[in-house]
Specification:
226 residues, 11 helices
Length: 226
């Protein structure tokens, strides 16, 4: 195996992850930059606040795909080139870090939920499915997108450990990558955790959430005395 291949694979994964599709899709569809309204987060949930469900859905899909493709390529084609679980774990975390700290967008990225899901689907379709169902179950019952992401992030490594060796191959380097992504997801949702604890987090589809994109009212002009 060429010793540079794992590095090349990781760099390529990071660059792919650095494509901020929330910004790209919004620009192509003539929408405002998602970093300028709502939460300011370049992700599908904030794009949805623009009022365009199509843009949000496309952002969600592409953010997941950019995590899926590099990992899936290494998992399926890597062994023929001497790339095994170590490189797989490296590529997984590199694609995820690309979304969080995109080199093409001044290292200011999203929270990584969709990209993490894509990475997990690339590692194992079953693992990704369990995490997705967890997100959907929590979102359906609570209507909190952030809480859904937090619960899914905590359970992802638990699923990997409990079902590793039966539904998918258990590899310690991959487990460490999954744990690292979970920790980073919790960190990126620190403000959401604070709002959840205070009961101030907006729910999916709430009026407060929809109003997030409303332009701020202009400051009243001071009247000059004559």
């Amino acid at each position: 195996m060429n010793a540079l291949l794992p590095v090349v694979a990781a760099v390529a994964a990071y660059l792919i992850g650095s494509l901020s599709f929330a910004v790209i899709v919004s620009s192509l569809m003539g929408l405002n930059d998602p970093r300028t309204y709502g939460s300011g987060n370049p992700g599908a949930t904030n794009v949805l606040r623009s009022g365009s469900k199509a843009a949000a859905a496309l952002t969600l899909l592409l953010d997941a795909v950019k995590g899926l493709v590099p990992v899936l390529l290494v998992r399926l084609l890597g062994p023929d080139h001497g790339l095994h679980e170590g490189t797989l774990a490296l590529v997984a975390i590199a694609a995820f870090l690309g979304h969080l700290f995109p080199v093409f967008f001044k290292f200011k990225g999203g929270k990584g939920v969709a990209t993490a899901l894509g990475v997990l689907l690339g590692l194992s379709g079953w693992l990704g499915l369990f995490v997705l169902l967890t997100w959907l179950a929590v979102a359906f019952t609570t209507r909190y997108s952030s809480l859904s992401a937090l619960v899914a992030a905590v359970l992802a490594p638990v699923y990997y450990i409990l079902l590793g060796g039966s539904l998918w191959t258990y590899d310690k380097p991959v487990l460490l990558a999954v744990i690292a992504m979970s920790v980073l997801l919790l960190w990126r949702h620190a403000q959401n955790i604070g709002r959840l604890l205070k009961g101030q987090e907006s729910k999916i589809g709430s009026k407060k959430d929809k109003a997030a994109t409303a332009p701020a009212a202009p400051a009243p002009k001071s009247k000059r005395k004559h």
